[in-house]
Amino acid sequence: MTVSLPFGLAVLTGKSIFIQVYDVIANNPQGFLTALGEHVFFLVFIPVMLAILIAVPLGVLATRKPFLERIFLGFVNILQTIPSLALFVLLIVIGFGIGTRPAIIALFLYSLLPILRNTVVGIKGVDPFLKEAALGMGMTGWQRLRMVELPLAFRVIMGGIRTSAVICIGTGTIAAYIGAGGLGQYIVRGLAFYSNGLLLAGAIPATLLALLTDFLLGRFERTVTPRGLRVEAAKNRSKS
After folding, report:
1. Which of 13, 3, 6, 66 is nearest to 200 (CA)?
2. Which pLDDT does position 136 carry in this prediction?
3. Residue 18, pLDDT score
4. What pLDDT, on the 0 to 100 scale, is given for residue 138?
């Protein structure tokens, strides 16, 4: 049973949704796998990795120089307010062309804020007593950062990385409008041809990919966090 909607779309039962998505994917499984691979690698992995390499060092630097914290966070906050499609178009106009290059740059810029902010918050949230103890043990600034501050701030930083990854998965679907490929191709074609199957073949896998990515990064965070820190975090949550 369907209910007519303005663009020829329909409210579908769970069974018919599955059938339409399956039909689209089964008709061209190689094309779907290619789009999925493009989305994961070019529109999520590369932008997030670049953001980690830039935002974490900037976040550390911002905790050492308070005036830099205001500059860095102010700049990335401004970037975050620019509508995604407008940023894609701006990058095209200034000479980056169409395709994956402007998409990677735009998604990298959007990924900076969560990682930078969480790095600053995580390091500043380390107990000052532990920092003083590290200095009392004769640790250098680099040793204190590497052995005390970053391990204790890791869970908070990972929260920013998880947020950035999910942002890239969602915003990456819009990048199909500038020829960046990915799962957004199905959504664009579905809107052009008023096809429920194409729309859902892009929207549902993108949604599942976001949920799976957040879950896997959460498991990774838990795995690499020492048990003592996990216990302490659980105690803090129970107290609050």
Report:
1. 13
2. 87
3. 79
4. 87
Which residue has tokens 């073949």? 201
Alpha carbon distances (Å) from 3 to 6, 11, 45, 126: 10, 6, 39, 55
Segment holding 83, helix H or strand E: none
CATH number of the domain bearing residue 122: 1.10.3720.10
Kindly give the residue spans of alpha helices, DSSP state H, lying in the chain.
14-27, 29-40, 46-64, 66-81, 84-91, 100-124, 128-136, 141-144, 150-172, 184-193, 196-224, 227-239
Q: Is position 177 within any domain? A: yes
Is the per-residue pLDDT at 84 higher than 50?
yes
Total structural domains in the chain? Answer: 1
Task: List CB contacts of 4: < 8 A, sequence separation 6 or more.
Answer: 10
Q: Does pLDDT of 199 surpass 90?
A: yes
Higher-pLDDT residue of 235, 34 = 34
**CB 205 within 8 Å of CB 183:** yes
Task: Give residue 136's domain range.
Answer: 37-239
Residue 26 within a domain: no
* Residue 2 within any structural domain of the chain: no
7-45 tens-digit pLDDT: 444 444 555 777 888 899 999 999 999 999 999 999 999
The one-letter amino acid code at 78 reads I
Q: Is residue 90 classed exposed, middle or buried when 0-12, 13-18 and 19+ CB atoms within 10 A define those classes?
A: middle
Whether 28 is covered by a domain: the verdict is no
Inter-residue contact 209 to 24 (CB < 8 Å): no
* Residue 18, both tokens: 């599955």
